[in-house]
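Researcher: Re-running this chain for the archive, since the previous output was lost when a drive failed. Same request as before.
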Amino acid sequence: MNTRLLLKIFGLLLVIFSFSMIPPIIVSMLDNQRELTPFTYTFAILITLGAILWLPLRGYQQELRSRDGFIIVTLFWVVFSALGAIPFMVSSSLSMSFTDAFFEAMSGFTTTGATVVSGLDLLPKSILFYRQQLQWLGGMGIIVLAVAVLPILGIGGMQLFRAETPGPIKDTKLTPRITSTAKALYSIYIVITLACALAYWAAGMSGFDAIAHSFSTVANGGFSTHDKSFAYFDSTLLETIAIVFMILSGVNFALHYGAWHSRSLKAYWRDTELRTYLWLLFLASVLVSGYLALSDGYQYIMSDIHHGSFQLVSFMTTSGFSVADFANWPDFIPVLLVFSGFVGGCAGSTAGGLKIIRVVLLAKQSAREIRALVHPSAQLPIMLAGTQVGEKVTQAVWGFFGLYVASFVVLMLLMMAAGVDHITAFSAVAACINNVGPGLGEVASSFAGMSDWVKWLSAFAMLLGRLEIFTVLVLFSPTFWRT
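Model: Regenerated structure tokens:
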């Protein structure tokens, strides 16, 4: 491990992160300086600490290895969540414990959307904006931003990019240079965010709410500026706009780039993962809405359709927004919603979950094993969009799935050992490891009632889900530290 290189990069990332305090400072100044101190205080801490680490080593040059990339990315999410918790602890409006503040910051950065905060409608705008901004930064990843705008890192950014990017195939670059790839992704991300904000504003949201909710929508995060989430607006038009942008944000951003670069929509329809994603969204939405209508959920069938579709899309894209008290719907629906979060969105998107491409590959591999029982000598390659999938990828998918299940079981058992009932424990782990946010039972709306131990377990589950298991668990391997 190259300690000097790690300190140099980490210091520079801290300096970058310090500037994320400026927008909340501006919002506070526009809001009669309410809660200005937490952000000026945090800005001073971050930029000072970053400068102390970076300046003495700014001239040091060394190639970054893959192992170093895993360490930097994992430590980045943990340390930045700890530092990002400072405004929540310092705020006189919240006065949160470190555990609660860390949970809230980790939930924001990982775009999970689980919360321990209530009374959102009464909080200062600077605090509300900061929560939303955390999700937007975490959606694409601040390390990807650093690789995009700071080639002065003087390292091979692919190691950082690969350690943070979701999906089973991590070496694909949109452009010859990794910095150009990161810039391309962030350009698409910003454009979609602006389009979402403008659509919300045109449909009736205030300017502040439109910007704030565009951040969490495009990041598929789920934080809101109101306790009732999207139900606060009571607008079918706004909910429809949210559905569109949640779905768009659950699509591989490389596909968005390909469509924009080629000025053609053909790239979308040729993609197996996207077609599967849209079909699953459609069929599951019909199932939820239909069951809700048969159960006399709402007076009018159109209300069943738009409430059911919104909640299904929100869960499957792991956004976590809510327009109804879904936990009190017929039991079949909340359970189906939770399981849709396991599937998640597409690889290379801001959505969490297993990812559609992994679900497709797992299904194809299972079908191949069944065919192999009938034809044991046959050559049965796995094909995807007319191309054979390499065995290295298929093995990685099975390895990921195995670790995912094992991690889920261990975390659930630990929560149950802490006194949490099985329904709450199952849904809490599902909500966090899939980066969905809301669960069932005691965590249907908030994690505030959970013990500190459960909150720390939940925060760890969020980290596992955001960095897709391997990036975190590899650090616990003795082999990793020996080589």
